[in-house]
């Protein structure tokens, strides 16, 4: 077994001497092409799964009934009694994503057996590319011996529930969904209300390039919860005159009147317009219209920058700088915001020149070196 999974497997007996032969599991991170901050209002999103992934090696434990976990990347471990996972409480660190999943499995009547678990991830942390969802889904596979793959939709729900109820993040289901359902060579347009989804082919003559600002954010902060609450305020206002509107997904721009307080009005305007951009982007992608795809990227970023106010100086700089580089069709922030990555649509023959130009500009402005990487759509989670 080659690559990162093979390395993890080779390290397993060093970390857990005396344990059995481990099984290997993989769950990818994601880049959201368009449809940002819409999943928790039952909106539309269009992500791709990444080649970068979380890998978990797991084997039955020889440690007196303990569920033992260790992260190769962080250099930390923890353990809990496997028969007590239903009653454990959050520690407010990375282990919550693992034990939160264990608790969700127990809630669903699945036996959480004593296991030795070794974790490695190539998904950048804090970059807005869903390192947490990848960890949740890979953990669910490992702790269930892959049985959760029998119902992939439930697997995505388990990851989301762990993040909502144990970690305390009121996220939607997009990140876990794409980690489970990702497809090579295509984006997935997801309806976060019905969970219906469809593959959207991407043009061969455009490269998807992410630029990591190296500014890290923590989505557990108050800003994310504030946006969720502000969307709720906007919905409540709209429902006063339009009771048929059940979520911002149902709202129209004409419903967002000046009587609404400024902040909720701006949040609602972003959500409504962003859902429309997802539909338009899918059409443009199918038609191979790179210029229109790029225009929609820029429109999305400006909405996130000015109406949803989740961008930051570094992301705005990266977008503006990218739009001045030859061969770039569009650029936008991706992920939760307040740092992380931009995603850029670039002429394939000009990717190297783009990487050099954006790196130089960012270094001159901030004295930091961004990480530039191509995003190729990848298959979803599975057993290796």
Q: Low-confidence parts, pLDDT < 50 over ≥5 residues?
A: none
Termini Cα gap: 9 Å
Radius of gyration: 21 Å
Q: Which structural class do the helices and strands define?
A: alpha+beta
CATH fold descriptor of the largest domain = Ribosomal Protein S5, domain 2
Task: Tell me the domain tally.
Answer: 2
Please count the helical segments.
Answer: 10
Explain this structure to me?
Strand 9 (328-334) and strand 10 (341-346) form a beta hairpin. The strands form two sheets. Strands 1, 2, 3, 4, 5, 6, 7 and 12 form an eight-stranded mixed beta sheet that branches. This protein has helices at 3-15, 95-107, 131-143, 152-167, 174-181, 222-241, 262-287, 290-306, 313-323, 351-366, and strands spanning 23-34, 44-60, 66-71, 76-81, 115-121, 186-191, 197-201, 207-212, 328-334, 341-346, 371-374, 382-383. The radius of gyration is 21 Å and the shape is globular. It folds into two domains: 3-202, Ribosomal Protein S5, domain 2 (2-Layer Sandwich), CATH 3.30.230.10; 207-374, Alpha-Beta Plaits. The protein is α+β, with helices and mostly antiparallel strands and 384 residues long.
Keywords:
single chain; 384 residues; alpha+beta; Ribosomal Protein S5, domain 2; Alpha-Beta Plaits; 2 domains; 8-stranded mixed β-sheet; 4-stranded antiparallel β-sheet; 40% helix; globular
